[in-house]
Amino acid sequence: MSSLYELTDNYKLIQRLIEEGADAEKFTDTLQAIEDSIDGKAEGYFYVIKNIESDINAMKAEEKRLADRRKAAENKVKRMKEDLTESMIETGKRKVKTPVFTANVQNNPPSVRVIDEGLIPKAFFIEQEPKIDRKGLLNSLKEGDETEGAEIIQTESVRFK
């Protein structure tokens, strides 16, 4: 089976045959051979692509399942630590020592809780790079607005039905 690059070269051969005025029978035979090759190549690619897409979907589903499971486990650990901390504080027992482990309640590092963002001075805000709204820009260009530095392009790709 020939590669797509070879098939493209074959199509260049067809163009040359047309330009050189080759007889109809030679042209038709060459074209038929190329069509059969690219049809077979496209069918083979279709099945390989569908198999790979199926694998990708299975991987995404497994990634999501594992991420959900990890998050649930992390939430359980967090809840258990909070419950134990609360119980130890309520009972006044700030330290538990066993042969296997030692647990003690201690202060966490100081942190900030923002109550009203509008009252925070600008000096505490982090400047960020501007980001282009590509969808908005595309819609503007489609409506006929001329924007220097941008243009609408139309690309092509294979779709299977």
The biggest sheet amounts to:
2 strands, antiparallel
**Which regions are unreliable across 5 or more consecutive residues at pLDDT < 50?**
none
Strand order of the largest sheet: 1-2
Number of strands: 2
Structural class: mainly alpha
- In which range does the helix fraction lie? 55-70%
Number of helices: 3
Task: Report the β-strand fraction as a percent range.
Answer: under 5%
Termini distance? 24 Å
* Shape call: elongated
Helix-strand string: HHEEH
| Rg of Cα set | 33 Å
Mean pLDDT: 87
Looking at this protein, list some descriptive labels.
mainly alpha, 58% helix, 161 residues, Sipho_Gp157, two-stranded antiparallel ribbon, Siphovirus Gp157 family protein, coiled coil
Structural topology:
Blueprint (H helix, E strand, L loop, with lengths): L3 H17 L3 H68 L3 E3 L4 E3 L29 H9 L19
Antiparallel strand pairs: 1-2
Commentary on this structure:
The chain is mainly alpha-helical. The chain has helices at residues 4-20, 24-91, 134-142, and strands at 95-97, 102-104. A two-stranded antiparallel ribbon has the order 1-2. Strand 1 (95-97) and strand 2 (102-104) form a beta hairpin. The model has no long low-confidence stretch (mean pLDDT 87).
